[in-house]
From TrEMBL:
Domain HotDog ACOT-type residue range list: 1-109
Region Disordered, residue ranges: 108-131
GO molecular function: long-chain fatty acyl-CoA hydrolase activity
Key words of the record: Hydrolase
InterPro entries hit by this protein: Cytosol_ACT, HOTDOG_ACOT, HotDog_dom_sf, Thioestr_dom
One GO biological process term: fatty acid catabolic process
Composition bias type Acidic residues, residue spans: 122-131
One Pfam family recorded for the sequence: 4HBT
GO cellular component, one term: cytosol
Name listed for the protein in its UniProt record: Acyl-CoA hydrolase
Species whose genome carries this gene: Idiomarina aquatica
Family classification: Belongs to the acyl coenzyme A hydrolase family.
Length: 131
């Protein structure tokens, strides 16, 4: 798993206890996973269908840099399943793991699932690499 995207935890990302709000991290995971999936499939017409098990392991605090590791778990005919690990950039401790994030490729006009045309073998993490 490659960790390529990072975010700085800002004051407006915190909950009442002063740690990173769980809802904010889920928002970031959905956004980062969408970007990763759309780069893998070279398509924009994707929707989040499912986010499976989410495990919060440790907290993040204001000023922490968190990074997102993403990898393809499975490619279906019209879907792509991804795993995302969020960790503290400096300590390397996992903050959160979101498994089985499923995106479905849809026809932009009919909004119905449509084949994305990629096989698992064709997918490559370098499609997401930051230049």
């Amino acid at each position: 798993m490659r960790f390529l995207s990072r975010r700085l935890v800002m004051p407006n990302d915190l909950n009442f206890a002063g740690s990173l709000f769980g809802g904010r991290i889920l928002e970031w995971i959905d956004e980062e996973a969408y970007i990763f999936a759309s780069c893998q499939l070279e398509a924009k017409s994707l929707v989040t269908k499912h986010i499976g098990a989410i495990t919060f392991e440790t907290s993040a605090f204001q000023g922490d840099v968190v990074e997102f590791g993403l990898q393809v778990k499975k490619a279906g005919r019209s879907s792509l399943t991804i795993t995302c690990v969020v960790r503290n950039k400096h300590t390397k401790q996992n903050i959160c793991v979101a498994d089985d994030i499923v995106f479905v490729h849809i026809d932009p006009d009919t909004r119905q699932p449509t084949p994305h045309g990629k096989t698992e073998a064709e997918l490559d993490d370098s499609n997401y690499e930051i230049d």
